[in-house]
Specification:
Keywords: Cell outer membrane, Membrane, Signal, Transmembrane, Transmembrane helix
Subcellular location: Cell outer membrane
Structural class: alpha+beta
Number of domains: 2
GO cellular component, one term: cell outer membrane
Strand order of the largest sheet: 1-2-5-3-4
CATH class of the largest domain: Alpha Beta
Protein name: OmpA family protein
Organism: Marinimicrococcus flavescens
């Protein structure tokens, strides 16, 4: 039993060593949030040492914090990678990278640069941008993506729902074609149900016509 327990603990130590690194940026607090969650896992792992060993849970919690911090650090790096990959698109205001929560990134893409009016076929000129996104997703393979299509309020609600879904599926297929495993992605259509701007103006409707890619660490 002790030999098995030591082997299990050693595995956790190796995992922590592989995922933990000095940050050196101002994103330490975000990684610290991951460390807090990791400490919970580590508390359970600490019990592997010995139920009667008072050092078990504290030591396991410390290991878990290292693991959690490593996951947080990895996700911070992924955010930076998206920002660097889409620096031109962000300057042109056709894409935005936003940290919604410590464990959720949102990449917003404007429909006008991706699709023609009333179409779910991606314009050839936008494929390089999707290739950049795919490259980051492939590199950081401990994350999944939910692709969500949105429309403005012009037209029938049922039609907008279907159009938004078809556009999300088109982005999913393009990312899959660029190397992202399909099982790591899901596509959803929200139609006109979640506007972020006033649909009574053209500027507002343009903002509402978008595709969002929500990236979260794998559980």
């Amino acid at each position: 039993m002790k030999r098995t327990s030591c082997a299990a603990l050693a595995g956790l130590v190796l995992l922590a060593g592989c995922t933990t690194a000095p940050d050196g940026t101002q994103r330490v607090s975000k990684a610290g949030m991951g460390a807090g969650a990791g400490a919970v896992i580590g508390g359970i792992a600490g019990a592997v040492l010995d139920k009667n060993d008072a050092r078990g849970v504290p030591l396991g919690a410390a290991i878990g914090a290292a693991v959690g911090g490593g996951i947080g650090y990895m996700f911070d790096r992924q955010e930076q990678a998206f920002e660097q990959a889409l620096v031109v698109e962000q300057q042109q205001h056709v894409a935005e990278v936003e940290r919604v929560r410590d464990d959720l990134l949102k990449i917003t893409l404007q429909n006008e640069v991706m699709f023609d009016f009333d179409s779910a076929t991606i314009k050839p000129g936008f494929q390089p941008t999707l290739n950049k996104l795919a490259g980051v997703l492939v590199k950081y393979d401990r994350s999944n993506a939910t692709i969500v299509g949105h429309t403005d309020s012009t037209g029938a609600d049922s039609y907008n729902q279907q159009l938004s879904l078809r556009r999300a599926q088109a982005v999913q297929q393009a990312l899959a074609g660029a190397g992202v495993p399909s099982w790591r992605m899901t596509a959803e259509g929200r139609g006109e149900s979640q506007p972020i701007a006033d649909n009574s103006t053209e500027a507002g409707r343009q903002l509402n016509r978008r595709v969002e890619i929500l990236v979260a660490p794998t559980s």
